[in-house]
Design goal:
With 253 residues, the chain is of the alpha+beta class. The protein has 6 helices and 12 strands. Helices cover 23% and strands 46% of the residues. A hairpin with a 5-residue loop joins strand 4 and strand 5.
Length: 253
């Protein structure tokens, strides 16, 4: 029987919130696949190779001290699906016991199937802008991605490297490709055409976007779906992370 991929994606992010609310670090880590990374515009980027490493870094007390009682979804919906990877856009808020909102965060979740286990491989964090006008940031981020694609197709390695933020991540299934600096960045072969572009979540310092692209190389044309995390870190706007999936591959029947 074919898997209901949309429901699997929604179930995975629901488990994430449910186990977070349990205040049990090991239960929460069970909602994740590893290696795991959470790129975002603020603070250090947290990457963990193993579940034990991740659990050791969790400190619920700091969140509880803010008055946090529980977290709830504001929205969640599936963007892209493949038999081994699902992209889900969501936004959650933290609440006090009296129902006051402490924090709101929009995120794109990269859900993967590793050794038969569906869980979250990465969380692309954005910042919540509330009623702020984010048109300017959205325009800058769209231009940045467009510039990157242009330089990629011209094989301008230096220009592409300058449009990234580091550490830079490409999220695979059960793996993370990490680039620590512009000096170690490299370009794959091929050309890219952007067929569609949607700004999913835009803040004052970040944007998550969804793209349909066609990649052309010596093997021919391949249609892929992509989510991109763009951040403004240390006054530098750059692409922080990517996740790509192939919606045409066949899953298990």
């Amino acid at each position: 029987m074919t898997e209901n991929l949309e429901q699997i994606g929604l179930d995975a992010v629901d488990k994430f919130i449910e186990t977070w609310n349990s205040r049990d670090a090991e239960r929460w880590a069970d909602s994740l696949n590893f290696p795991h990374v959470r790129p975002s515009p603020f603070g250090p980027i947290k990457a963990a190779e193993t579940q034990d490493e991740y659990v050791a870094s969790v400190d619920f007390s700091r969140v509880v001290e803010t008055g946090w009682d529980h977290s709830e979804w504001d929205y969640k919906h599936v963007i892209h699906t493949a038999p081994d990877k699902i992209h889900v856009a969501g936004q959650w808020s933290r609440y006090t016991k009296d129902g006051e909102i402490i924090l709101t965060t929009p995120i794109v979740y990269i859900v993967t199937k590793v050794n038969g286990n569906w869980a979250i491989q990465s969380r692309f964090g954005a910042d919540y802008a509330g009623d702020d006008d984010t048109t300017g940031m959205e325009t800058r981020c769209i231009k940045l991605i467009d510039d990157f694609v242009g330089h990629f197709n011209n094989k301008n390695l230096k220009a592409c490297a300058e449009l990234l933020n580091y550490p830079h991540y490409v999220v695979g299934v059960g793996e993370l490709e990490e680039t620590q600096s512009a000096e170690t960045f490299s370009l794959p072969d091929g050309r890219v055409m952007v067929d569609s572009f949607i700004a999913l979540q835009t803040g004052n310092a970040s944007m998550n976007a969804a793209l349909d692209v066609t990649v052309t190389n010596e093997e021919g044309n391949r249609a892929l779906q992509v989510v991109v995390n763009v951040t403004n870190r240390n006054d530098h706007l750059g692409i922080q992370a990517w996740s790509l999936l192939d919606p045409t591959i066949e899953g298990e029947a």
